[in-house]
Amino acid sequence: MAAVAVTAAGGLLSGCGYGASAEPAPAKQTEGASGAKLSADTVKIGYFPNLTHATALVGLQDGLFQKELGSTRIKSQFFNAGPAEIEALNAGSIDIGWIGPNSAINGYVKSHGTSLRVIGGAASGGVKLVVNPARISSLDDLRGKRLATPQLGGTQDVALLNYLAGRGYKVDAASGAGDVSVLRTENKVVPEAYKSGSIDGAWVPEPTASRLVTLGAKVLLDEKSLWPNGKFATTDIIVSQKFLTAHPDVVEAVLRGSLAANAFIKADPQKAKADANLRIKADTGNALPPAILDPAWAGIDFIDDPLAGTLRTGADHAVAAGLLDEPELSGIVDLTLLNKVLTAAGRPAVAGAGLGVE
Fold first, then answer.
1. What is the pLDDT at residue 33?
2. CATH classification of 2-9+127-230, choosing from 3.40.190.10, 3.90.850.10, 3.40.50.620, 3.90.470.20?
3. What residue segments make up the domains of the chain, in order of their start?
4. SS3 string of 240-295?
5. Cα angle for residues 306, 320, 223 (degrees, 5° grid)
6. Are 177 and 135 in contact (CB under 8 A)?
7. Residues of the chain with confidence (pLDDT) below 50
8. What is the pLDDT of residue 21?
9. pLDDT of 299-342, one tens digit each?
């Protein structure tokens, strides 16, 4: 099992990205910014080269953020794991980031509510339980099987533990041992682990799920089916509280760019998908092939609402699993600027589900 680099430990409630690692990529400086400068010379934006972060990918690739920022330049940096992005935010290396909800929760709780705010949404869905059909033919066949999640305490890890508990399976959350073995395995390693037979399936985000399908796996469960109306936060937008206080005009401009990116994704999904893939190739050196890109893209909903209620639910699931002490999440969400932008666009405001700034 060590040969497939299964990780049995990590930061609780940390994020999980495709090809998760602790090292961020070098920052990139935008060229050719023009127009009026806002209150900051530069805004530093972080994201993952993931399809679930396509709002950021498209916004950067097509200049939609820069259009709103005028001559305020963008310095972008991609990450492959939530803890590294949170560390960068805390250190001032980035100001605004696209990230998984449990990483946002962890960052907020560890800082005692002083580090960040969730200010917008980006993606819902795009997470599936994918299995080897020769070993698992139904949801009743999970006992004794080995299922991978990207990271201990990450968003998908918590979701799988909660699902297994709901079906009566007993699993020790810290070790992953129990009626079902939960193996914490980096997304980039999951396909090789599947091919070698080291795992029987995985609860993973896109495009890892679709990559496994190309290897002969089948989708046994789409996590959308477990949530009311099929909606749950996969990626949200966070901002440093310090930067939000000092440069609200810059944050508002980025949110306008985010809404523009999601509008473009809805209006021209084929072009947006291709542009997101171009950004992934530029960042990682490899574009996703159509057999992976197309089904992965189809499984994700791109949204502006951070779905704050599901943020609370995810935290509750982590508490129930024993991975998190009961957190104080009041104030983690600040939708003031998002609702200002939505109202200006003639759209209804979104709610903070009791987690908003007082």
1. 66
2. 3.40.190.10
3. 2-9+127-230, 28-124+231-344
4. EHHHHHHCHHHHHHHHHHHHHHHHHHHHCHHHHHHHHHHHHHHHHCCCCCHHHHHH
5. 50
6. no
7. 1-22, 31-32
8. 40
9. 999 999 999 999 999 999 999 999 888 999 999 999 999 999 99
CB-CB contact of 70 with 32 (8 Å) = no
Cα-based torsion angle of the residue sequence 131, 137, 138, 141 in order, rounded to the nearest 10 degrees = -90
In this structure, what token pair is assigned to residue 241?
């509280």
b/e string for 292-322 if b means 16 or more Cβ within 10 A?
Answer: bbebbbebbbbbbbbbbbbbbbbbebbeebe
pLDDT of residue 226: 96
Superfamily of 28-124+231-344 according to CATH: Periplasmic binding protein-like II (3.40.190.10)
Give residue 338's pLDDT.
98
pTM recorded for the entire structure? 0.87
